[in-house]
Design brief:
Length: about 750
Amino acid sequence: MEKNMPKNADLGDAVEMGLLSEEYDQICNILNRKPNYTELCIFSVMWSEHCSYKNSIFWLKKLPKKGSNILIEAGEENAGLVDIGDGLACVFKIESHNHPSALEPYQGAATGVGGINRDIFTMGARPIAQLNSLRFGDINLSHTKWLMKGVVKGIGDYGNSFGIPIVGGEVYFDKSYNTNPLVNAFSAGVVDTKNVISAVASGKGNPVFIVGSSTGKDGINGAAFASKDLTEDSADDIPSVQVGDPFQEKLLLEATMELSKTDAIVGMQDMGAAGIICSTSEMSASGNCGMKINLDKIPTRQNNMKPFEILLSESQERMLVVVKKGKEKKVQKIFEKWDLNCERVGVVTDTKDLIFYYKNDIVAKVPAESLVLGGGAPVYNREYKEPDYFKELKNFDINNISIPFDIVNVAHQVISLPNICSKKWVYEQYDSMVGTVNMTNNNPSDAAVVNLKGTKKCLAFSVDCNSRYVKADPKVGCEIAVAEAARNIICSGAEPSAITNCLNFGNPYDPEVYWQFVGSIKGMTSACKKFKTPVTGGNVSFYNQTRKKQNIEPCFPTPTIGMLGVMKNKTYFTTLDFKNEKDIIYLLGPSKDDISSSEYLVNILNIENSPVPFFDLDLEFQLHELMKKLIRGDFLESAHDISEGGLFTSLVESLLPRSLGCEIYTDQFYRQDAYLFGESQSRVLISIKPSKEKDFKKIIKQSKFPFYKLGHVCGEKVLIDDVDFGKINFLKEKYNTSLAKKID
């Protein structure tokens, strides 16, 4: 043992920190001795699921990661880097902040937003757009309302203060999320490829700086906290929840942008999960080097912080920067200008070890490679098995369901459901206009479309996942999640380019949960290969469940897909709203007598167990190719995909923006409830001008893709099969106000 090293920690300490006994033995073998308490703390956070992906990396490696537009492969940097042409790249990523948000929803959500934005600008990219994917429990529960209000306010306050528009997202409700909400934050930025900053340390003797905010005790052990079940005692872990300051983050952003244009930087990394120890180990391992760090030189907010507290703190708005020797003053001058800490705390070495000092004593010495993903961190391929419910779902038979007598009343109920109705109560708390790049503020589209000023191009973004589908069939359900994200991108006029993912599941040691995870990876793989959308990275969040005494209740499996699309010409931009009376309405895609896993079946008929809705990956791809041809040929007035709530919901959403009505006729070959409310996939609702119908039909017939002429846009009434479903203003009131009435 090194001179003056602290005393050893034993197996009991390891187990208390969440390590397995065999992992403790592995640590002893790596060090050739027993670890001390600080070192054991280091391994406990770096080998936690949140940092090491030890229970998921075996399968994550099977995802498609290569593509002609991919500039770095998944896992090599803080976020994905995708070539968008003209010397520019898009940096984008999605991550979870579920456990912190379950305990302290405001700060949990706020720091999730802050962390994901730092991942973007740490690479030298200026963030231009944020999205989020949120899951809450039963909306009628007071606890759900408290969680939702805190999460939405946290996202809004941090994002609005930081000054990056929130341009899109999704919100779902299900009782499986009653205690454990999901808060998945997405951010994207644009960078000149010449100014990309790498998260790599190199160069013996190069100084190491910590910049940004001071280090406090908030968020200590947060990564390990996010890698275990939530229990009735989890409120005791509130110190594991970080506290954010968006104004500090804004200063840090501007300083980083200025820094990216200098020649002073070797590498830079955000201090997110596991704080200083994560940044030092990952940067060192990437550069095949080591570091010496003086912990007592790190600016702290609290007196007498212990070495392990400084190392593990997840205080926000901090970066680790490796500077070229001799360029220190240039860096210090920039951070002094922005009134931020910029302290030299260490040096790069060629030993491959991380050595941490406190008041001249060595408090920890560990090989950097032993801590990181793909290095010495353990890798497990857990047991998995198909759950009994999977076979039972297939027993569902639509013929045992009676068609409702009052279809009009059912339609009104469907568009009032929390998962269907407008989320205005949520998005009106977000600033979507700052930066003046959001093209979908007053022009609603299936995807969020962001203007790239000074070019002909736009970027399109979508976040999608129907977790009920994934539970019904993990492989097909995840294929649908990728397909719907791509369909939204296509309907906006862009072309899918790449994805990031946030994989939210229960306990990986539960074979049935792990079966859901493995199936989702297989589905994501097949769909991404089909649409040529490689995976640029993302996040795995296990342990999304609640333990109540002896019962464990996992959340629905939720592999959220964040997709990037590129619109090569702004003239392709397509919105979802019907434009003019007499425009003709068509349905593209196959109709089916299918109400499986639909909002109508689950929340109107109260039947929860049914299989995944109809989906065919090849047919979906054909639809995308047809849509691209129609949009490039300027045939469409509008395009809107059909998903949750079925055809009727998509119809209402296309009518509302301009307060128009319609007169349509359903295909009488199919059940009316399935036709209007079923959620079978690979379908798009479009409208065209009468003058273009002849040429439109010619292209459709050549494609041999199924289509059906529904009717036309008209006055203010919604008429279906000659039945009055209500005036558009009545439907608008139902759709727009239902969520607010349930929350307030």
